[in-house]
User: Which sequence fits this backbone?
């Protein structure tokens, strides 16, 4: 129940006792009551205190039966909600006993207390006061002891339960209803809320049911509202009616289980007194039972516009069938979702067949959507339309509009908070603030409440007299002045909410709720600290504090003192020094903006002032509520001819948003008008009252109490016209081609396209099995623009049906009827398939033009022609006949010789070499009738000789467009034809008529009943038109060339033009900046009438010559002129060029360069610097410099004009007799700045060439280009290590950059794949190639431009051959390395003395180890004691003769042999005898 009690009643229930004096009530009770009643009262109180606080619910009848005062008809204490609506009763625990003892009701006690007799009696019983006080104190102490024991037991229990739930094993548990929903009995048209609190883990899912049917808020928009926050779940039922009487169930479910709780809602009507808001009672019998009424609302009111202060009536005629005498339906009027009641602002009338609502005095609060609801027992009918209220004319020009919706949010004895909404119109200047006025009810005197304007749309008004009622109004002010005052607020009394509730009485419906309060207040006890002090609202004008009373119960009437302290200090200052406040809320003014304050509150009563509350956090004085951010993404959409739907994206992070204002402006007008004068809460609004066919832009801004946001960005322009509709279904679905898994479909355009061009089509398909259709599937997700589509992923030999939907700007239309069932099987016929998309144009009484598209299925050969068939629409199939005997290659044909008024149908057949194919679907019947108002294309030549085709249509719609075509195909070359349109006329202008323009020109008007025409422009017609054009152009002197300027020798400037044809009588006026020029020293004019060349020559240009030069021609009536504007950069460039030409002329008087220094790269990659010189003589010398150092001198040049050359070289100087410098390679050493100087006694000239940085790069790139172009095709060769790719270049430079590619990716080199250069050969070596190395190889030469790439395919036979050769070479290399060899160590001849020992050793190699054989005189010898032969370690072979004799003389050989080969080593041994040797010596 605490959730339903308003904040001021929860915090301060003691206010319900009306601040009565305890002494007064006690004395009165003693005087009025008898002893037995007093005893009974004491007993009752004691029993109540022992039981604690009880809350019970009873019906109204039970409440009266249980009341201690039977005669009491009305309850005294009422509980009210935030809107001051009565929600239940407040019953003090001991009040019942006191009333029973006194016998007086509250009203009677108040009356007795106010009499002087009562005051006298109070003094008589002063002595008994102390006795009663002691009894009450003892009673209170007993109650508090009992309450403390109960509280302690409860805390111990909760502590144990907490630790149980924190156990991991029991953390998850099924849902539990901590608070179950309670049943309610409410009155019709009131709102009711059912709420409950559910615990459980995981968090339960909560569903509400009505009579076991789940409640869907979306299905009943505005009826139900579901809310779930912090385990509290609620169901709110708006504007209850009899149908809402039901049993409601709330179900909570999680993984641990499900639990339900029930509550009933009973909706009642008033009995006895009749509420003025309800329909009046019927008079006389009405027999309506068993009758079903049908209600129709006709003669409706439309969207209405009014101005503040005016009167407006809204009315509708209501027809109810059947008609019953004296039967009156329930007629209700709503603005938005608010039910309107008769008042001084609204007057309602029902005449029996017409309902009328009169707005007596319009204000902007009256703006909104008005709904008439007519209810019978069979149901209800509604009709709605919007009412717009504009601001009244301002009393001061430029003043803002009046504020609106002035309300009182919080009213108590100390102040009333007034709120309002800012106006949409600020008068052109921003609003400076608002003034709040008050007027006491019953008077007409208005008093201004604030001295300075407040910008915040909320203001607490103080200085009110308690108990009196006030009305409020607000005015806005800007620099221009004050606005008109707003509509006055509803009257509100300056008193506490509880007092206001008691004054309201008991006529409110009984809700069955009882609220129990505390015990009687105690006397002589100083109150404790206030609780939960907080700043609830802070602006730069005021701060509002809120708190709760002290925690002690039963205190004597408490009031409060408020204290403030500047942050950073300890100086507390009391704000309300004179009178303490009675309400738990307080508004502080006169605080310094920007400073920080802390606040605290003290309680006080007759016993004294209590301790202060805890101070608040430091609060800076200023507006806490920020102005909302601007909305975004404003999107306008066409609606009607006078309205546009505007939607936008809401402001981000906006707090307390009031709504949005929308403004509209005609494009380029810069005048903005408000579309609504009352903020709308939605993000979509229909702006009415716009001008048809105008282009509008829109903007939106948000508003809250802090102010209005910035405007959103402007929307895209939108034209105000009726919104389009989706198209009707296409029809005539046919198959154009079929293969195994796909089919091409064709269909016809919908008969109604919805007022907008069709943007595409969507195709669906479904399988048909045994005649039973399956589920539809989408064939395309993205819309297709053509009326033909291939549906893929079908199953062969399956049957399918298709449907097509068309789409336009309005959306996707409904699908077509399912097509015939088609079998998906591949077409194998040789002839073509059927043509499709047949269209009829230019229907006349004797002819028409038909267009079509070629078949999708071509057959075995391409289509080479078409045949057209015709028959009367009602003729049998045998009546089909051909139109053309010879096939036409075009996809259009003009059919002539039709019978006027006859309806025809047509079809087309395609042919190829195999024959004539399938016929297309026949067209719809076309009557051969020339429609009234039909126009033809008219050719026209205007006075300027412009040839144009003109077409006019009288049946255009706002969406119609002219579509021109040539030979019935879209015109894509706009350079030949320019199309212009205005209204219902269109013109196609030939830009430059010629033979390229010959053809058939047609014009089609969209969104009409086929309005179209064509015009044939053949060669003869073109010649005629050109002659007419020439004749029309003649009055204008045609120019072969417009006025132009050129530079002559010495920098002279020549202005000239040439007339195409001019007579001898022609005249020319020369004008500069509107001043006529004449022939003289500065200007030289010449006019050659034979050639038509007109010229004017100036020696030079100065600053004064900047402007416009014009030649004005006149030849009889024919005139013409041509102008040339020379200003700004154009003039400066021309003047600069003129001065340059003058200097050039002076330069060329001596030796000079005709062509400046440049370079040339020869095919041999030689770099030659050269320049062309002129006006030379023998004395002229040419000096060459590099980087400022002379490198060559050319003297005694024997030519007048020629070419100087210098070949860049690396060598220091040429050899004697050399005429040019040569070099081996161009390198970075050759970069530098080269210069040539020509000079003689007439002067000198210089030319410089920068070959550094980018210049040198460009030079080398050209060299690289020649090198790349000289490269040979990439070739393949094999080595014993692998495969090598190579190319040769005529010249290689070290700076050349090449890249090897494999399969278009750069090769990352490794030990297996390497590249290199040998001489002029560039190679790529692939070691131990495998099949993975097969592929495309390329070498790319980088020349700074596109480069050059040479490729070779290393795959297939090329790879096999290269790999085989590699294997052969590898085997040969292995054999060569492993064959037996005699590595050395044997001499050729050995001469040795007889008797000596001979020992020779040689090295042997080979794998496997060779076999060694020794020979003497070609005969094998073996090892013995005389000749010892050894072969050690497989490497060393030794030959030893222990004692040489003459028989050992001879030729010796060693023969080594293994499987890879044989080799021998020979030597000769010569043995001599010493004596013989000596004799020979002698």
Assistant:
């Amino acid at each position: 129940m605490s959730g339903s009690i308003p904040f001021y009643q929860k915090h301060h229930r003691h206010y319900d006792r009306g601040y009565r004096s305890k002494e007064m009530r006690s004395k009165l009770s003693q005087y009025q009551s008898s002893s037995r009643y007093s005893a009974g009262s004491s007993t009752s109180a004691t029993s109540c205190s022992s039981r604690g606080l009880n809350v019970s619910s009873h019906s109204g009848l039970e409440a009266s039966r249980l009341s201690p005062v039977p005669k009491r008809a009305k309850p005294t204490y009422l509980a009210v909600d935030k809107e001051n609506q009565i929600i239940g009763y407040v019953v003090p625990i001991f009040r019942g006993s006191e009333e029973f003892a006194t016998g007086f009701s509250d009203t009677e006690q108040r009356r007795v207390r106010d009499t002087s007799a009562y005051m006298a009696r109070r003094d008589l019983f002063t002595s008994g006061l102390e006795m009663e006080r002691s009894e009450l104190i003892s009673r209170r102490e007993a109650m508090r002891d009992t309450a403390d024991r109960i509280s302690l037991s409860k805390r111990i229990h909760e502590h144990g339960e907490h630790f149980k739930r924190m156990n991991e094993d029991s953390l998850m548990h099924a849902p539990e209803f901590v608070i179950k929903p309670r049943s309610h009995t409410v009155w019709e048209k009131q709102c009711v809320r059912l709420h409950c609190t559910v615990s459980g883990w995981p968090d339960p899912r909560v569903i509400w049911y009505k009579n076991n049917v789940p409640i869907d808020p979306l299905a009943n928009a505005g009826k139900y509202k579901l809310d779930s926050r912090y385990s509290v779940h609620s169901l709110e039922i708006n504007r209850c009616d009899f149908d809402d009487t039901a049993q409601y169930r709330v179900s909570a479910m999680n993984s641990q289980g499900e639990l339900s709780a029930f509550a009933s809602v009973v909706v009642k009507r008033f009995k006895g007194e009749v509420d003025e808001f309800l329909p009046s009672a019927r008079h006389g019998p009405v027999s309506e039972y068993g009758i079903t009424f049908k209600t129709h609302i006709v003669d409706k009111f439309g969207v209405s516009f009014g101005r503040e202060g005016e009167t407006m009536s809204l009315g509708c005629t209501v027809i109810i069938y059947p008609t019953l005498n004296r039967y009156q339906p329930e007629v209700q009027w709503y603005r938005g979702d608010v039910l309107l009641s008769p008042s001084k602002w609204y007057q309602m009338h029902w005449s029996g067949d017409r309902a009328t609502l009169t707005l007596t005095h319009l204000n902007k609060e009256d703006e909104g959507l008005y709904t008439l609801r007519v209810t019978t027992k069979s149901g209800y009918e509604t009709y709605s339309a919007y009412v717009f209220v504009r601001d009244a004319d301002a009393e001061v020009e430029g003043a803002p509009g009046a504020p609106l919706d002035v309300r009182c949010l919080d009213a108590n004895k100390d102040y009333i908070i007034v709120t309002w909404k800012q106006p949409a119109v600020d008068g052109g200047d921003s609003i400076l603030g608002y003034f709040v006025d008050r007027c006491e009810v019953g008077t007409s005197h208005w008093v201004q409440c604030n001295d300075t304007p407040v910008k915040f749309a909320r203001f607490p008004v103080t200085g009110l007299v308690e108990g009196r009622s006030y009305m409020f109004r607000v005015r806005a002010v800007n620099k221009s002045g004050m606005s008109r005052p707003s509509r006055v607020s509803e009257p509100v009394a300056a008193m506490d909410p509880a007092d206001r509730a008691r004054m309201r009485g008991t006529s409110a419906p009984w809700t069955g709720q009882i609220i129990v309060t505390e015990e009687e207040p105690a006397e002589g006890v100083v109150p404790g600290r206030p609780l939960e002090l907080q700043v609830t609202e802070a602006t730069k004008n005021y701060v509002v504090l809120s708190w709760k009373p002290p925690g002690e119960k039963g205190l004597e009437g408490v009031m409060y003192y408020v204290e403030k302290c500047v942050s950073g200090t300890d100086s507390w200052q009391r704000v309300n020094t004179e009178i303490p406040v009675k309400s738990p809320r307080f508004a502080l003014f006169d605080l310094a903006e920007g400073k920080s304050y802390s606040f605290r509150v003290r309680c006080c009563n007759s016993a004294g002032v209590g301790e202060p509350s805890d101070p608040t956090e430091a609060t800076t004085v200023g507006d806490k509520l920020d102005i909302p951010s601007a909305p975004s993404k404003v999107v306008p959409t066409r609606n009607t001819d006078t309205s546009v739907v505007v939607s936008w994206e809401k402001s981000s992070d906006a707090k307390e948003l009031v709504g949005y204002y929308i403004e509209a402006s005609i494009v380029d007008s810069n005048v903005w008008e408000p579309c609504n004068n009352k903020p709308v809460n939605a993000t979509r609004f229909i702006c009415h009252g716009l001008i048809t066919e105008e282009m509008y832009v829109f903007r939106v801004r948000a508003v809250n109490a802090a102010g209005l946001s910035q405007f959103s960005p402007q929307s895209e322009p939108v034209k105000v016209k009726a919104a389009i509709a989706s198209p009707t279904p296409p029809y005539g679905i046919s198959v154009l081609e079929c293969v195994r898994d796909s089919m091409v479909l064709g269909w016809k355009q919908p008969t109604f396209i919805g007022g907008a061009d069709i943007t595409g089509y969507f195709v669906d398909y479904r399988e048909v099995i045994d005649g039973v259709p399956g589920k539809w599937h989408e064939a395309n997700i993205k819309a297709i623009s053509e009326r033909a589509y291939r549906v893929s992923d079908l199953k062969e030999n399956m049957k399918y049906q298709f449907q097509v939907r068309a789409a336009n700007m309005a959306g996707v239309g409904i699908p077509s009827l399912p097509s015939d069932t088609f079998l998906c099987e591949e077409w194998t016929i040789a002839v073509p398939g059927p043509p499709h998309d047949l269209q009829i144009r230019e229907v006349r009484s004797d002819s028409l033009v038909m267009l079509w598209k070629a078949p999708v299925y071509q057959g075995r050969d391409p289509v080479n022609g078409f045949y057209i068939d015709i028959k009367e629409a009602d003729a049998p199939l045998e009546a089909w006949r051909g139109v053309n005997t010879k096939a036409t290659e075009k996809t259009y044909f003009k059919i002539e010789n039709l019978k006027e008024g006859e309806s025809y149908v047509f079809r087309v057949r395609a042919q190829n070499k195999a024959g004539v194919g399938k016929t297309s679907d026949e067209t719809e019947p076309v009557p051969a009738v020339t429609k009234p108002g039909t126009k033809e294309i008219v050719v026209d030549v205007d006075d300027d000789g412009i040839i144009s085709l003109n077409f006019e249509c009288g049946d255009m719609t706002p969406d119609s467009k002219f579509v021109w075509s040539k030979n019935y195909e879209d015109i894509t070359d706009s350079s030949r034809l320019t199309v212009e349109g205005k209204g219902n006329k269109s013109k196609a202008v030939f830009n430059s008529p010629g033979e390229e323009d010959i053809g058939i020109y047609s014009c089609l008007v969209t969104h009409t009943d086929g309005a179209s025409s064509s015009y044939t422009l053949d060669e003869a017609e073109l010649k005629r038109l050109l002659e007419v054009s020439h004749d029309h152009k003649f009055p204008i002197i045609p120019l072969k060339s417009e006025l132009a300027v050129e530079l002559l020798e010495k920098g002279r400037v020549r202005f000239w033009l040439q007339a195409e044809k001019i007579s001898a009588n022609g005249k020319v006026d020369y004008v500069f900046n509107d001043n006529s020029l004449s022939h003289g020293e500065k200007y030289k004019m010449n006019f050659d009438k034979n050639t038509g060349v007109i010229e004017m020559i100036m020696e030079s240009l100065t600053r004064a010559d900047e402007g416009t030069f014009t030649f004005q021609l006149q030849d009889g009536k024919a005139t013409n002129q041509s102008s040339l504007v020379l200003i700004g950069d154009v003039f400066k460039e021309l003047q600069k060029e003129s001065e340059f030409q003058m200097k050039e002329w002076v330069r060329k008087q001596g030796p000079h360069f005709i062509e400046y220094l440049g370079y040339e790269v020869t095919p041999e990659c030689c770099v030659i610097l050269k320049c062309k010189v002129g006006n030379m003589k023998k004395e002229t010398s040419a000096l060459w410099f590099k980087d400022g150092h002379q490198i060559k001198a050319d003297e005694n040049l024997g030519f007048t004009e020629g070419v100087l050359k210098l070949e860049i070289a690396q060598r220091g100087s040429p050899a004697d007799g050399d005429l040019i410098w040569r070099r081996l390679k161009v390198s970075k050493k050759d970069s530098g700045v080269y210069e040539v100087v020509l000079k003689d006694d007439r002067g000198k000239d210089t030319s410089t060439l920068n070959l550094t940085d980018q210049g040198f790069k460009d030079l080398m790139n050209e060299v690289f280009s020649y090198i790349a172009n000289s490269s040979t095709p990439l070739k393949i060769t094999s080595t014993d290590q692998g495969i090598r790719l190579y190319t040769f270049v005529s010249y290689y430079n070290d700076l050349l950059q090449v890249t090897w590619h494999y399969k278009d990716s750069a090769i990352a080199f490794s030990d297996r794949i390497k590249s290199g250069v040998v001489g002029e050969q560039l190679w790529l070596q692939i070691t131990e190639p495998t099949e993975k190395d097969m592929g495309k190889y390329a070498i790319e030469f980088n020349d700074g431009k596109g480069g050059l790439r040479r490729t070779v395919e290393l795959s297939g036979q090329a790879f096999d051959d290269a790999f085989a050769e590699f294997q052969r070479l590898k085997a040969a290399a292995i054999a060569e390395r492993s064959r037996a060899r005699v590595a050395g160590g044997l001499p050729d001849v050995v001469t040795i003395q007889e008797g000596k020992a001979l020992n020779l050793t040689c090295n042997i190699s080979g794998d496997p180890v060779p076999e060694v054989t020794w020979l003497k005189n070609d005969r094998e010898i073996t090892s013995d004691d005389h000749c010892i032969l050894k072969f050690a370690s497989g490497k060393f072979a030794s030959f030893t003769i222990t004692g040489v004799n003459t028989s050992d003389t001879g030729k010796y050989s060693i023969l080594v042999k293994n499987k890879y080969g044989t080799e021998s080593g020979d030597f000769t041994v010569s043995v001599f005898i010493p004596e013989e040797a000596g004799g020979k010596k002698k």
In short: The chain has 14 helices and 101 strands.
